[in-house]
Amino acid sequence: MAGRFDPLNRTTVRGGRTPLPDGGPHPAGTAGGAKPPPGAKARRWTPTGPVDLGITLGPLRRGPADPPFRTTPDGSVWRASQTPQGPATLRVSRTGAEIDAEAWGPGADWLLEQLPALLGSGDDPTAFVPRHRLVHASHRRRPGLRLTRTGLVLESLIPVILEQKVTSDEAYRSWRRLVRQHGEPAPGPHVPGRYGLGLYVMPTARTWAMIPSWDWHKAGVDAKRSDTIVRAARVARRLEEAAAMEYAAAAARLEAVPGIGPWTSAETLQRSNGDPDAVTTGDLHLPGIIGYALAGDRDADDAAMLELLAPYAGQRHRAARLILLAGHTPPRRVPRMPRTDIGLL
């Protein structure tokens, strides 16, 4: 759980007043003795092993120019989130073996307390044993891979729903338009992104539930997906409780909402809960990629994929990520999934 003291992970906050007992954020805290940016709260955390910020936090990015996610030339990762305490912006960077973070906004304390979990403090990579040469090679090349845990269900669930039955580009475009139109500029400094647009915090659950039908239509979202998002937003408090549940119970909680199935729940809980075994089923491409990488079978279905991943029980999601990161995909032999014009439906 976020904020729980973990004796295996040293966490320090330097400068300002006395830090919290667990080394958590303090309004006067600064990272590394440096003066924090105006209005920022700061934290320095030392992980027990290597952490690659790009690979670990990469699954949280929803395509190019994602309104709540930016990377900057200095290697920093910026994220804007709708936390239980309100909107907030987080900047994460590396100083040697240590991780520095600054946060702005009403939810700044929450994000800083969540920082270790976000960067995989609850993840145990030593439990993973590679059993295939490709997986072994990918694992060896990426010692800094950690499975992120955001602790925020709706933040991951809504973009996953938008990705149902459409291309990634279509889903990313819908997400960008809806967040910029119905969200709000992120607290803290202006961080320009592609096209000069800064960070945005995604809408609150109440706002998602009140988006009019014509705005969904303009964003390219059909009624089935928009209705699912509205249903999820109306029970957002109950869904957020899934972040503290074991995988089976959390998936059942999400799938109780009509329109949310195993594919959507797995893709969501991989990010919100950091579950190392949350393997995605029902995906158009993943079984073929796993089958091709592990057995040369580009026509593998879900059953064949699960059989191939069986030796990684308890770590199937990590194995799938390592296979995807290896980039060993079957040659394309069918046309790309066609774009959908909902105006013609």
Using the CA coordinates, give the radius of gyration. Answer: 20 Å
The CATH top-level class label of the domain at 153-260:
Mainly Alpha
Largest sheet: 6 strands, antiparallel
The N- to C-terminal Cα distance equals 44 Å
User: How would you state the average pLDDT, rounded?
Assistant: 87
Residue fraction in strands: 5-15%
Spatial strand order of the main sheet: 1-2-6-5-4-3
Structural class: alpha+beta
CATH homologous superfamily descriptor of the domain at 153-260: Hypothetical protein, domain 2
- The stretches of 5 or more residues where confidence is low (pLDDT under 50) are 1-34
Number of DSSP helical runs: 14
Per the principal axes of the C-alpha atoms, what is the gross shape?
Answer: globular
> What's the number of extended β-strand segments?
8
In CATH terms, what is the fold-level topology of the domain at 153-260?
Answer: Endonuclease III, domain 1
Structure in words:
By secondary structure, the protein is an alpha+beta fold. Among the domains are: 108 residues, Orthogonal Bundle (Endonuclease III, domain 1), CATH 1.10.340; 41 residues, no CATH class. Strand 4 and strand 5 form a beta hairpin. Helix 3 crosses helix 14. The radius of gyration is 20 Å and the shape is globular. The chain starts with 9 loop residues before the first strand and ends in a 19-residue tail after the last helix.
Task: Give the helix/strand layout.
Elements: E1 10-12, E2 41-46, H1 53-57, E3 69-71, E4 77-83, E5 86-95, E6 98-104, H2 108-118, H3 133-141, H4 153-162, H5 168-182, E7 184-185, E8 200-201, H6 205-210, H7 213-218, H8 223-234, H9 236-240, H10 247-255, H11 262-272, H12 286-295, H13 302-309, H14 316-326
Antiparallel strand pairs: 1-2, 2-6, 3-4, 4-5, 5-6, 7-8
Organism: Streptomyces subrutilus
Region (Disordered): 1-88
Keywords: DNA damage, DNA repair
